[in-house]
Structures are given as structure tokens and as C-alpha cells.
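INTERNAL AUDIT FORM
Audit reference: QA-55
Scope: verify that the stored structure record matches its stored sequence.
Auditor: D.O.
Record contents follow.
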Amino acid sequence: MTVTTSTRDAEALTLTIATELAATPERAWQLWADPRQLERWWGPPGYPATFHRHEFEVGGQSRYYMTGPEGDRSHAWFQITSIDEPHRLELDDGFSDNTGEPIDPDDRAHITVTFEPTDAGTRMTVLTQFSSSEQLERLIAMGMQEGMALAMGQIDAILAEG
């Protein structure tokens, strides 16, 4: 498993998950930029993601859903807010209805992803900034911390393919 730390800070309203990847920052960047690669790891095992829209540019929108083992679907969205390839990516993330549109555009979390070169490859850190303690507690209760760590644990297999 590539996840090295997973830290929740209730006072700062953040969840930080760091991974060590055996790849260059440029290769790690492709895990986010390419929707076919992103959908292979975004979502814990047993809940594969399907991106039916992925505009990887500042202001770009992404729409996706995760399919559960019983066939149920959970829909969500991204909006890219900043790109500094291959060092930093920022986006807003929230839940959507089954057409892909945000249920409540104000109920969003801000995600900052950083890619730092290391001797062994890349340290990818995903910092989620919640808008309130209620949002943080609600998403943690839904299993976000464990789910994201399990999702990132799937990256090694993708990188091993080249």
C-alpha cells in the first residue's frame, strides 16, 4: 500500500493523506489528468468510479459516479481551480444528482494535491479542506478517510503497468 500517512485535524478542518509513489511527478500527474487512469483508483475497491466528463483545465468540470457492489451509484463533481503541472492541482469537490449537477453547490470541499520528487519517486499529498466541522464529521462518518486511503492503495498496480 502506498499510503504513508492519513491525518484528520478537526480544528483546522482538514484531512491529509500522503502517498509515496514509485514514479516521477510527471507520471503521477497523469493519474489525475487522464480520466481512464483516474477512474481506476478514485474510489475504494468495490466502488469503481466512472468519469463521464473530465475537463482538466482551470475552470474545467468533471462529473463522475462510483458504483457500489449492489449496483447503486453515488454521483459527484469536481471543478478544477488551479493547475501547476506537475507540482500542484486544486479542485472543489461535492455531491451531485444523477444528471451530474451539484446538489448544493455551496456544500463543497477544497482539495489541494501536491507532487514532490523524492529519491524513490514522488510524494503525493492530498489535503482536503472542509467548509465546516459539520461537513468534516459528516464525510468522515461516511468513511471518507478510510475510503480515500484504500483508493490510493490501488495506484501501485496502475503505475506497475507503466
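Auditor finding: record pair retrieved intact. The CA atoms of residues 7 and 141 lie 15 Å apart.
Action required: none
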